[in-house]
Amino acid sequence: MADVNRGDRPLSPHLTIYRPQLTSMTSILTRITGNALLISALMIVWWFLAAATSEDYFNTANAFLTSWFGDLVLLLSVLGLWYHTLAGIRHLIWDNGIGLDIPTAEKMGWACLGGSVVLTVLTVLIV
Predict the structure, then answer these.
(1) 117 and 79 in contact (C-beta within 8 Å)?
(2) Mean pLDDT by 10-residue block, N- to C-terminus, for the chain (127 residues)?
(3) What pLDDT, on a 0 to 100 scale, did the predictor assign at position 3?
(4) H helical segments located in 1-127
(5) The dihedral sign for the CA sequence 120, 123, 125, 127
(6) Residues 6+ positions from 100 with CB-CB distance below 8 Å
(7) Domains and their CATH numbers in the chain
(8) Nearest in space to 36 (alpha carbons), one of 86, 90, 84
């Protein structure tokens, strides 16, 4: 027999009532930066292939990479690279059973976010 009260039952926590935690957001951000780094790597490979193909094709690819949009993509790629690296180090620390309590995990999440910004600024200033 069909359950007629099915619509009256409470649902599991949904995005409208669930408060995202820093650790879950940084985990999602790690996955996003990993995929974004793949796309930026393909863009750099395109630039190298254009350099190996012909001068006209290289000029087209180089114009794209050195435009304001290309500069923005490369800057965000550096930020993503630093964040992804720091998050990977954080996961290696967690794999050793260190820093798994909530206050330490949140401090490490903030360290990944802040550290990636600082390291990006240093990279841009040095390079």
Answers:
(1) yes
(2) 63 70 92 94 96 95 95 95 96 95 95 97 95
(3) 62
(4) 22-53, 55-65, 68-95, 102-126
(5) negative
(6) 94
(7) 21-126 (1.20.1300.10)
(8) 84
Residues across the chain:
127
pLDDT at residue 83, as a whole number? 97
Tell me which residue of 87, 107, 85, 95 sits closest to 22, measured CA to CA. Answer: 107
Report pLDDT for 98: 95
Distances (CA, A) of 54 to 26, 87, 116: 42, 39, 37
Cα distances from 105 to residues 32, 55, 68, 98, 116, in angstroms, run: 20, 50, 37, 9, 16
